[in-house]
Amino acid sequence: MTEFIQLMAQYPLLFAAISFVFAAVIGSFLNVVIHRLPVMMKREWQEECNQYLDEYHKATVTEIKDKLAQPIDDFPEKYNLIVPGSSCPKCKTDIKPWHNLPVIGWLMLGGKCAHCKTSISVRYPIIEALTGFAVAYLAYHFGPTWQFVFATLLTFGLIALTGIDLDEMLLPDQITLPLLWLGLLINLNGTYVSITDAVIGASAGYMSLWSVFWGFKILTGKEGMGYGDFKLLAVFGAWFGWQLLPLIILLSSIVGALVGLLLIVNKKINSGNPIPFGPYIALAGWIAMIWGENIVNWYLSTL
């Protein structure tokens, strides 16, 4: 293992290429997570509703219970991140293993199901390629170090969160909370920042957006963002300390405002429609992970 690490350190482009292939394969799995995790969560919520009705309202809510007992989707009863295997959403034909190759499989099929010729969303190869390129850059930037390993895990989580938030306006605790605790654990020995900065960062990240949320709600009576956004910013505070939080908030706000304005101008959404903020926090946090200190130092040097 030591010899392999030394070899990868000696040939950073080779290490980046190997990392790209590995990450693209994981990107294929992230597509599964983005699609299936919300379905699994909805089923869990439905089951919790049924259990509540069974325990407390047996005599008075039979009709409601019957309605809740009905399937909320068209997927098989046993449905998780592993089972069933990948299949065409229309004809249900199983996807061959070679057609599941990241990016290449989609190109081989011409973006269509091999059986029924239904179009396959271009989002699948985009996520696979994005995951591959992001991790390849991390490999080149950090080299074969623990910082690279943990940054890669964070990147996988951010891509999954971004896809789910775009689809469902939801940042699942099943992803944000493990990332939050992992950030604190890896900084026990100062992987990115001191544990003191990490703890303060996690607290400040959560409380800063929490304060904005309640201030906006008190003034307007509306909720400007979700609790998942607080947790995601806390993740970056736990990983990279409180010092980078202002930069992350600034970058995410600027990008979010510009994208929202473009969508309104192009009439993709109305001005009152909500847009997910998680993807902008994720992108800003990833940028801060790589170039945050350089950006802050550049800004301070201009003052």
UniProtKB/TrEMBL annotation:
Its EC number is 2.1.1.-, 3.4.23.43. Pfam families: A24_N_bact, Peptidase_A24. The keyword Methyltransferase applies. The keyword Cell inner membrane applies. This is Prepilin leader peptidase/N-methyltransferase. It comes from Shewanella loihica (strain ATCC BAA-1088 / PV-4). Residues 153-261 form the Prepilin type IV endopeptidase peptidase domain. It catalyses: Typically cleaves a -Gly-|-Phe- bond to release an N-terminal, basic peptide of 5-8 residues from type IV prepilin, and then N-methylates the new N-terminal amino group, the methyl donor being S-adenosyl-L-methionine. GO terms for biological process: methylation; signal peptide processing. Gene3D superfamilies: 1.20.120.1220. Plays an essential role in type IV pili and type II pseudopili formation by proteolytically removing the leader sequence from substrate proteins and subsequently monomethylating the alpha-amino group of the newly exposed N-terminal phenylalanine. It is found in: Cell inner membrane; Cell membrane. InterPro entries: Peptidase_A24A_bac (IPR014032), Prepilin_IV_endopep_pep (IPR000045), Prepilin_pept_A24_N (IPR010627), Prepilin_peptidase/N-MTase (IPR050882).
